[in-house]
Specification:
This protein has a 6-stranded mixed beta sheet, covered by helices on one side. The chain is globular. The protein contains 3 helices and 6 strands; from the N terminus they run αβββαβαββ. It starts with 12 loop residues before the first helix and ends in an 8-residue tail after the last strand. By secondary structure, the chain is of the alpha+beta class.
Length: 146
């Protein structure tokens, strides 16, 4: 078989789907089904516009928070914490025992630590002059959630 290596900054959506499905199939056969399920929490204005949100997924008993954003008008009001609590409750309902998140924003890292997340690693100079911090939290069922 003859092959060639192709590098692109504009991969086709179907090619990315193929990679995702192929890797998922391999991982499922290697360690068992992930049960990967999207999870999102949104804060909306009266007009229905998104003012804050969390997006990620649950898989293999973990919640991964991929994106967390709060509009300027809601910052400083514990909105990130409230959204994380909602996502964590749903993750526990789905059977998750842990959550993880990463950030290169020192203020966000402080907010996550206030929510009980603990650093477990960092990449220095990602981006330059900052550290990308990886944090995790063990999830516990709340009262009546066993």
């Amino acid at each position: 078989m003859t092959v060639r290596i192709e590098t692109t900054q504009a991969p086709a959506v179907e090619d990315l789907r193929f990679l995702e499905k192929s890797l998922s199939a391999f991982n499922d056969s290697d360690v068992g089904p992930s049960g990967k399920t999207p999870l999102a929490v949104f804060v909306r204005t009266e007009a229905g516009e998104i003012a804050a949100g969390v997006s990620g997924y649950t898989a293999w008993g973990w919640l991964y928070v991929q994106w967390l954003w709060v509009s300027e008008s809601l910052r400083g009001q514990r909105m990130a914490g409230r959204m994380l609590e909602a996502a964590e409750r749903e993750a526990v309902r789905r059977g998750c025992h842990g959550a993880f998140i990463d950030t290169f924003n020192p203020n966000a890292a402080k907010a996550y630590k206030r929510q009980g997340y603990e650093p477990f690693g960092a990449l220095e100079d990602f981006p330059a002059g900052r550290s990308r911090t990886f944090l995790q939290k063990r999830l516990q069922p709340g009262p009546g959630e066993d």
